[in-house]
């Protein structure tokens, strides 16, 4: 039995060697001579008159109108200002937010608004991001108490990244401690 098995394996190995030795040789083609293209006459160039300039495409007026409306609504919103290192609403901020709520509830009932919280440059970037968020949340909560639906409001904090006024004095800092309102839809 072992001998028969050994013979079978030897035959298989020989068959494998023979088939490997008979591998086909690749036929390498000699490079074909490059035939230069025959000189032909240059194709006749057709001279065409340039097409009349197309009439300027008018942008869709609907988008422009909607954008203008959105900007007009955003411009109508008042900015709410805050004291240094505070997110509590002062009376002037409450008045501004009441006006903004009236706009959202009476004038522009379909607008969604993003409340952006901002800070002055004092404090670390991380602290100012958190303070801007607290200010935006204060404004959001007040608008909710005035009846603005929550699904129309969102918040974002920019911290000190987008100052309204440049400068390192109290006047500039006071303008930068704010919440702004941006129409997003």
Tell me what the structure shows.
The structure is a single chain. This protein is α+β, with helices and mostly antiparallel strands. Helices cover 44% and strands 11% of the residues. The protein is built from 5 helices and 4 strands. It has helices spanning 2-21, 61-76, 91-107, 125-145, 170-176; strands at 80-81, 113-118, 153-159, 178-183. It has a 4-stranded mixed sheet with strand order 1-4-2-3. α4 links the parallel β2 (113-118) and β3 (153-159).
Give a short summary of the structure.
The protein is α+β, with helices and mostly antiparallel strands. It contains five helices and four strands; from the N terminus they run H-H-E-H-E-H-E-H-E.
SSE blueprint:
Elements: H1 2-21, H2 61-76, E1 80-81, H3 91-107, E2 113-118, H4 125-145, E3 153-159, H5 170-176, E4 178-183
Parallel strand pairs: 2-3
Antiparallel strand pairs: 1-4, 2-4
Looking at the structure, what is the overall shape?
elongated
Structural class: alpha+beta
Number of strands: 4
Which strand order spans the largest sheet, edge to edge or round the barrel? 1-4-2-3
Q: SSE order in H/E notation?
A: HHEHEHEHE
Instruction: Characterize the biggest β-sheet.
Output: 4 strands, mixed
Percent helix, as a range, is: 40-55%
Roughly what fraction of the amino acids lie in strands? Answer: 5-15%
How large, in whole angstroms, is the Cα Rg?
Answer: 39 Å
Number of helices: 5
| Mean pLDDT across every amino acid position | 79
State the low-pLDDT regions, or none. 22-30, 33-38
Distance between the termini: 87 Å
